[in-house]
Amino acid sequence: MIVFIYIVLVFLILRFSVTVFNFLSNPKLGHYGKKFDDKVSIIISPSSVDATELIQSISCQDYKNVEVLMVGSNEELSTTAANAKGRYLLFVDSCSVIKMGLLNSLIYRAKVFNLKLVVLIPNRSLNSFQDYLLEPIPDFVLLNLLPLRLVRLLNLPWSAAAWERHVFYDAESYKRRNADSEEGEKDEKRAETLLANGMILSNKRTSVNEASKQLLSTFDRNPLTIAVYLLFLIAGPLVLILNSQLAFISLPFGLIFLTRIMISFLTKQNPLINVILHPLQMVALTGLLISGTLKKLFTSGIHSKS
Fold first, then answer.
1. For residue 78, what pLDDT is reported?
2. Can you list the alpha helix ranges (DSSP code H) found in 71-222?
3. pLDDT at 220
4. Residue 42: beta bridge partners?
5. What per-residue confidence (pLDDT) applies to 274?
6. How many CB atoms lie under 10 A from the CB of residue 94?
7. Fewer Cβ atoms within 10 A, N terminus or C terminus of the chain?
8. CA–CA distance, 264 with 280 (Å, rounded to integer)
9. How many alpha carbons lie under 13 Å from residue 255 in its C-beta half-sphere?
10. CATH code of domain 26-127+141-202
11. How many other CB atoms sit within 10 Å of the CB of residue 47?
12. The 117-121 sheet, strands edge to edge
């Protein structure tokens, strides 16, 4: 049991260290004053949500050399992007709103750091209790597991499908990626993952089913990885509470508290609400991952029999 407790503490400290790194390195898309005139194709991903507000926000941009392409289904996405005329492609969800300066800032990052891909983590509009319960969970998971700045600094390939609803591509790179070429694989490593810093606001109302799918994608739908993560995330602290003295328990509670505060400031969410709702969010996280994993395994079993 003592070995498990030490492993849980190491896991907690590692996650806290990643959060501190993200907080200090501040991986946000900056507001840059430089202006560009490269053509940008804005491709609005298929969704049941009306895109009127998004289109209005695009028309209000100071960047005018754009074309807007609506996609009717996921099957049309690649074809639409291949026929786009822009030097760059910006994929956005129809339930989003983009703010002034986004396009110039993205092009600046791409040119200065020779990037082929920029993945943006949008800020979230939270209104209902379900929003406050579910929406912060993916940000919490990502920002205490992945040091975002290292994606570019270490040329790490980006493949988390859960975050590809808001992506900025070099158009030629996107075509090479879809062709599964060797150059396309190299382009995947010339990527950066950034917080949108208020320049993309997602108004998406995430359902329980969608939240489960997004979390599964974050873990590459690997049941073993999910099981180990939940073991140390949920079972670990419970074991510490049941087997440790109060002074010893204060360490994990303090780290969790500071983690929620730092991630809340990074994502422009209310830190007090996230701290208060943390136990419920962790229960929701556990339920979403377990139900999603069981559904995946059950579905895979049916398909394999058929």
1. 82
2. 77-82, 102-112, 129-134, 136-143, 148-153, 171-178, 182-189, 208-218
3. 78
4. 68, 90
5. 96
6. 21
7. C
8. 16
9. 20
10. 3.90.550.10
11. 15
12. 66-70, 40-45, 88-93, 167-170, 117-121, 191-195
Residue spans of the chain under pLDDT 50: none
pLDDT of amino acid 176: 82
Q: pTM surpassing 0.70?
A: yes
54: Cβ contacts below 8 Å, ≥ 6 apart: 44, 92, 94, 95, 96, 97, 98
Helix (H, G, I), strand (E, B) or coil at 281: helix
pLDDT, position 200: 94
124 within 8 A of 269, measured Cβ to Cβ: yes
Residue ranges of the chain that CATH labels 3.90.550.10: 26-127+141-202
For 285, other C-beta atoms within 10 Å of its C-beta total 23
Q: Which of 194, 220, 216, 44 is nearest to 119 (CA)?
A: 194
The pLDDT value recorded for residue 302 is 52
Amino acid (1-letter code) at residue 61:
Q
Question: Which tokens belong to 174?
Answer: 């996107």
The sign of the dihedral angle between the CA atoms of 219, 221, 225, 229 is positive
